[in-house]
Design brief:
The structure holds 2 protein chains of 2 kinds.
Chain A (H helix, E strand, L loop, with lengths): L8 H134 L5 H16 L1
Helix pairs in contact in A: 1-2
Chain B lengths: L12 E3 L2 E2 L2 E2 L2 E2 H19 L10 H20 L8 H17 L12 H23 L17 H13 L1 H27 L3 H4 L1 H38 L2
Antiparallel strand pairs in B: 1-4, 2-3
The chains are: A mainly alpha, B mainly alpha.
């Protein structure tokens, strides 16, 4: 076998050392650092991008939160305004109603007073008419001469009796 | 025309060089070593020349090779192996290209020469031993006696461990040399059957040849990987003992 022919050993060892030495030098000094740099740059870039994305997400979360807060506040404000308006309207209604009721009561009282006055007056007139009529009847039919006072007393008593 | 299956292993000078009676001719073996170096350098510098953030196909290959070897060193040696990474990487690429270039018909496989694989393995053996003594001083002799074994077993265990330690460069170099030599012999021998067996009968060895060629490509990669990973394991032993 040519592998065991020592005549080629020196040359093969020599060229092995030379070629492998060159390869090692070029790999260690040029190629590998460059690849390492590229790989590192890439992983750094990816990490950076992820970080940036995270920051942006946090920011958008904050914005959404602020928006929700503002919305909730606006809702609360509107509710308060509605409640205030409702209370105001209720107050106004109650005041107007009271005012109206008062006026009605006043008018009623006035009317009742007037009715009472009219009734009293009419009762007096009726009494007077009844007294006069009773006096006239007694004089003309019975022929009795009665004093006007006696007639009015009798009529008053009768009225009291019927009223009772 | 080549007649013997052994002719493919013949070292023939291309440029005769004599230095003080020593034959250092530039041979076909040296040519393929040069090609392996040129191929590796081309792949790893040309492929990465643009340093793209999104790698091109060639850059992907270079990065993949880098990461395969980087992971191998990290898993087998740990962080202490970082400074040896360029050597391990060069070793892997040199053997890988040597094996694969040998698959080119008419090419030369320098990894099928025991003197080449043994020189590599012997260099690794010496380097690893020096690193071991440099890291652990005389404590490195502890390599030859397993921790926790009863003292009297030293009589048996120490010689065994010494022999196993000393046989490392032999097994490392012979594994690669034998795999490459036998594979290429087989290809030539079976290839030699095709024509003599005729148009119909020759189809059988032709099919076998195709299958074995595929297998040889697999072996070319696996043996480069095995050689490298064993180097990592030896280096780990030297750095951390066991």
């Amino acid at each position: 076998m040519p592998q065991f022919d020592p005549s080629s050993f020196a040359s093969q060892i020599f060229w092995l050392i030379v070629s492998f030495g060159v390869l090692y030098y070029l790999m260690a000094r040029v190629a590998l650092p460059r690849i390492a740099e590229v790989l590192e740059e890439r992983s750094e870039r990816i990490a950076n991008d992820l970080e940036k994305a995270q920051a942006l997400r946090k920011e958008s979360d904050a914005v959404i939160e602020a928006y929700e807060e503002a919305l909730a506040k606006a809702r609360a404000d509107a509710g308060a305004v509605i409640a205030a308006t409702k209370a105001e309207l209720a107050d106004l209604t109650a005041a107007r109603e009271k005012d109206f009721a008062d006026k009605v009561a006043l008018k009623t009282a006035e009317s009742e007073a007037r009715i009472a006055a009219v009734r009293a007056e009419m009762t007096e007139q009726v009494k007077a008419i009844a007294t006069a009529t009773a006096g006239d009847i007694t004089r003309q039919i019975a022929g009795l001469d009665v004093a006007n006072d006696a007639v009015s007393t009798a009529v008053a008593e009768r009225v009291k009796e019927t009223a009772a | 025309m080549a007649t013997s299956p052994l002719d493919q292993f013949e070292v023939t000078p291309i440029l005769p060089i004599q230095v003080g009676g020593l034959d250092l001719s530039y041979t076909n073996s040296a040519l393929f070593m040069t090609l392996a170096v040129a191929g590796t350098v081309a792949l790893l510098t040309f492929g990465v020349r643009r340093r793209s953030l999104v790698p091109t196909r060639l850059q992907s290959v270079a990065e993949m090779l880098y990461e395969v070897v980087a992971n191998m060193v990290r898993d087998n040696v740990g962080s202490g192996g970082r400074q040896y990474f360029p050597f391990i990487f060069s070793l892997f690429m040199f053997i890988l290209f040597g094996n694969l270039l040998g698959m080119i018909p008419g090419g030369f496989t320098f990894t099928s020469h025991i003197i080449v694989t043994f020189t590599l393995a012997f260099f690794i053996f010496v380097a690893v031993t020096i690193i071991g003594f440099w890291k652990h001083g005389l404590g490195y002799f502890g390599m030859f006696f397993p921790h926790g074994a009863p003292a009297w077993t030293a009589i048996i265990l120490v010689p065994i461990e010494v022999v196993s330690y000393l046989s490392r460069p032999v097994s490392l170099s012979v594994r690669l040399f034998a795999n490459m030599t036998v594979g290429h012999l087989m290809l030539k021998v079976i290839g030699g059957f095709i024509l003599p067996m005729g148009l119909i009968g020759g189809l059988l060895p032709l099919g076998g040849l195709v299958a074995i060629t595929a297998l040889e490509f697999l072996i070319a990669v696996i043996q480069a990987y095995v050689f490298t990973i064993l180097t990592c394991i030896y280096l780990n032993d030297a750095l951390h003992m066991h």
